[in-house]
Amino acid sequence: MLKLHNLSKVYRTDEVETVALDNVNIEIESGEFVAIMGPSGCGKSTLLNIVGMLDSSSSGDYVFMGENVAGYPESKLSNIRKQNIGFIFQSFNLIDELTVEENIELALLYHNIPANVRRERVAKVMDKVGIAHRAKHMPSQLSGGQQQRVAVARAVVGDQAMILADEPTGNLDSAHGQEVMEMLQALNAEGTTIVMVTHSPAHADYARRTINLFDGHVVTENLRAAV
Amino acid sequence: MYFNYLKTALRSLIRYKLFSFINIAGLAVGLAACTLILLFVRDEFSWDNHWDRAEDIYRLETTLQFPIGSDRLSAFAPDPLKDIFFDTFSEVEDITRYMEGSLSLRMEGDVFLQRGLLADPNFFDFFDLEFVQGDATTAFQSMNNVVISERTATNLFGDSPALGNTISIRSQGEFRDFTVTGIIIDPVPDTHIQHDFIIPFNRESFVGSRWFTEDWRFMYRSVFVKFAPGTNVDLVRAALPGLVEQHRPKPEEQAGQESGRNMLLHLVALTDAHLKSHASTADPDVLFGFVGLAFLILLIAVANFLNLSMARTSHRAREVAMRKVVGASRSQIAQQFLGEATALALISMIVAFVLVELSLPYYNEFLTAVVELDLVTGPGVAAGGVLLVVAIGLFAGSFQATYFALLKPRDVLYSNMSPDHSTGKLRTVLVVSQFTISIALMVGAFFVNKQTDYARTLDLGFNPNGLIVVAGTNGDRSDTFKRRLLENQQIVAVGRSSDVPTRGSEDRLTMRPVSGEDLVTLDGLPTDPDFFRVYEIPLLAGRFLTDTEADLLRTREGDGEFRSAVNVVINKSGAALLGFVDPAAAVGQTIPTNLTQTRYLESTIVGVVDDFHFDSARDVIRPGIYYLDERRQSEMTVRIDRRDYDAGILALEQAWRETFPDQVLSYRNMTDLVEAQYQTEDQLSDMLFAFTVLAVSVSCLGLYGLASFSVERRTKEIGIRRVLGARFHQIALMLLWQFSKPIFIAAAIAVPVAVYLVTNWLSGFAYRIDVGALPFAFVCLVAISIGWITVASHAFRVARSNPVEALRYE
């Protein structure tokens, strides 16, 4: 699916140079469920942003589905992203002005899909995450767990091959957290590649492989036997 | 996709109701104010352009130049010019003339005073007045026909038919019967050709008819020339001095050189008659000033709109970031925000047009005009409005569009940083600009208002209270009328003169100063002996003129021959101009004066009166000379005892009925005449004030918006300050200071500019207020107070809030 080769990311301000990622080499196969762990500031989110093409690397290669996208312009990255990658955030990032249905539909809006097809697919995915009864609600009327389910639905409605989840359970209580994890697991079982940043070892256990980062380096990679 | 944009935009508007209201209302009020001003200005510039072939019609006007002193400008021209024009210029298609005046109309015993035109027979061919009844071609077939306007028909005949009926019109002292042969629509307000009825000009009905139409010295008629289409009028203009030289009798050939030394002819476009003629009723410079005001208000409104749109950035950043994450391209994001701003601006325009429609009745009443927002009949306004508003929308939207197009989703989705740091500076600049304009406008409005008030408090030099000016008292019954008036104890004094204060005098007389220098010009005024007593004008030296033979300009016997030596009174300025060290020094001096226009009469100064305003109070008082000419005392001024005013008016009416039973009594209060001088300036001053209030309000909306969003952004900082021990008042003061700064900067920019403009404007007044520092300080204080009131609620709310809540917010 993707391969990072000697990838580095350096943030520069006037006086300070911060190395967020230092010669990272990671390979993720199609259909994998990978958890990325590490203490705050170790570069987890930076890594996820680069993988998700929301940020670009300072040096090194990023081969995504056989294409080296490092150095691609924003518009090209945007195109690859919208075809292949879905995002789930800790803070859900739903649009307050749109209903559940419309928030999910947003992910199809920039794909040139006819409205009736969009509606069908949104309905289907809402059923799948169990939020159909809340279709016309606004995000502010939902619980955190429900909001994150909407976010998951939004991430997958476009049939994205890969989902990047940045602490998807960080704002949720344990019951809701588990619910979301089970949903991700089910998606993975259907073949979606999942890359998840998490602080929770318990939730990392859902993944088949855990990559531990520390100060911008990959320190360990643990492969788990299938659960 | 666009439906989704619309949905998001609408819901965002609804969610931030107050904000949306401020945003739309600010622009709408600005646009409405701008529209109202421009409609007024457009109306002023479009006077008389409704006539058929208005662009080919010119009015012939004249300037009489005197060797010294001011020229005499007239919107009339001598009658002989008609034939001369036809003979000289082949381009002339037609010429028509009319004389206008207030004439008495009698209908079944009732007498009405109406405005009449005594017009040439071709008047209706020349001006395409619409006939409701009757026919333009036959209306003037007889000299005894009259064409009346619809309102006159209603006034005189009510519902019964007017056509073919008879009306008596008093002209030159007697009533004559006229047959109604036409009814025309009422004149529109924005034409200077106003009338209630029109009759054919009949030379025979004027005493001394020959001189009336053949003499260059008499100008009583408006003369209109219609040129062939495409005529180069400048070439005609160039030929005018030669034409005067060739045809105008030299002063020595024509007895009585009433006509001045030199005559200039002017061809004034009919459409310029209102603004750029010798009878202008408005000042184009003032109108351009108002266009400037409209532009400034628009600028404030646009700055406001832009500012508030950008303030909302933080609220929309997450949405935009998410849109980008799911694949929106830069251009799609840009389109969304350009479209949103344009739509918002268009909504504002619709609201603005509604506001304009709602305020037009009051506006028209205030302006005594019929300004219309003709969106349907004149699509130019609508199209112009849409274009302007789309431009505003695209301009305002472009800032947000650019900002969001370049926004990195990562910055919003992963950081606590407020995304609108970069727009903060620009927004402060906008608020500073708004307040700069507002403060300058406030200073301007303040001084215009003060100056207008000041003009009103100026000492006129006479006491206008209780003075009544009665028109139409010339003729042999005048003495009887005066005697009858004075029989009443409420009537304090009665005086006569050829003109009355506020209207200016016609005579310009030349005298030689005692030093023997060049001749000087004084404004002359024929009066009667009681004139100064009626007006309560103080005598500084010598005596007033009396009813004795020695004081008269003409002998009472025979033809009223001029006497060879006369006594005159001059004013203080006159004495100074003639070189006397003080008024007393002038008394008893004899100076030759061209009182007869052909001869210099030995004029002995018997008295000097104090200066008094005879023209506009805005003008400087001119040197004046006063003499008794019993043939030129057509205006009668009556002083009524203020304590018994109503009884005085009753006595006046009674005396009139007894003396002039067949005429309408027409009188005006001198206080009204004085007041009328200030009316236009008052009106413009009020207008400036009203629009300044609007401009300041819109600026405050902008500041309010800025404050509300800025305070929200600083919630966390304030929470931390509170946790660290900052007191309520420290926080409140800190915030107040933050919003005072832009106003202080604005004041620093606005005040020097305002000082320059105000000083410049005031220099046009002979009597003007001082430009002190105090008003500026006052206006700045007002601006800062308004600013504080606007932001205080935010500051206090945040300063009082629970710091824990504030910190949890992020």
Q: Spans of chain B of 5+ residues with little confidence (pLDDT < 50)?
A: 253-259
- The topology string of helices and strands of chain A comes to EEEHEEHEHHHEHEHEE
Oligomer: heterodimer
Radius of gyration of chain A from the CA trace? 17 Å
Provide structural commentary.
The complex is a heterodimer of chains A (227) and B (810). In chain A, helix 3 crosses helix 4 (115-129) and helix 3 runs parallel beside helix 5. A 6-stranded mixed β-sheet of chain A has the order 6-7-8-3-9-10, with helices on both faces. The longest helix of chain A has 16 residues, at 174-189. Chain A has 7 helices and 10 strands. Chain A has 227 residues and is of the alpha/beta class. In chain B, strands 14, 15, 16, 17, 18, 19 and 20 form a 7-stranded mixed β-sheet that branches. In chain B, strands 3-4-9-6-8-7 form a 6-stranded mixed beta barrel. In chain B, strand 18 (590-593) and strand 19 (601-609) form a beta hairpin. The chains are: A alpha/beta (227), B alpha+beta (810). Chains A and B meet through helix 2 and helix 3 of A and helix 1, helix 9 and helix 12 of B.
Write the layout of secondary structure elements.
The complex is a heterodimer of chains A (227) and B (810).
Chain A: E1 2-12, E2 17-28, E3 33-37, H1 44-51, E4 59-64, E5 67-68, H2 74-84, E6 85-88, H3 100-109, H4 115-129, H5 144-156, E7 162-166, H6 174-189, E8 193-197, H7 201-204, E9 209-214, E10 217-223
Helix pairs in contact in A: 3-4, 3-5, 4-5, 5-6
Chain B: H1 2-15, H2 17-45, E1 57-65, E2 72-74, H3 81-88, E3 92-107, E4 110-119, H4 123-126, E5 131-134, E6 145-149, H5 150-157, E7 166-171, E8 174-184, E9 197-200, H6 209-214, E10 222-227, H7 233-247, E11 262-269, H8 284-311, H9 313-325, H10 330-367, H11 379-406, H12 409-413, H13 421-457, E12 467-470, H14 478-486, E13 491-497, E14 507-511, E15 520-527, H15 531-535, E16 539-542, E17 565-571, H16 572-577, H17 583-586, E18 590-593, E19 601-609, E20 624-628, E21 635-640, H18 645-659, E22 667-669, H19 670-713, H20 715-723, H21 728-762, H22 773-800, H23 803-809
Helix pairs in contact in B: 1-2, 2-8, 2-10, 2-19, 8-11, 8-13, 8-19, 10-11, 13-19, 13-21, 13-22, 14-18, 19-22, 20-23, 21-22
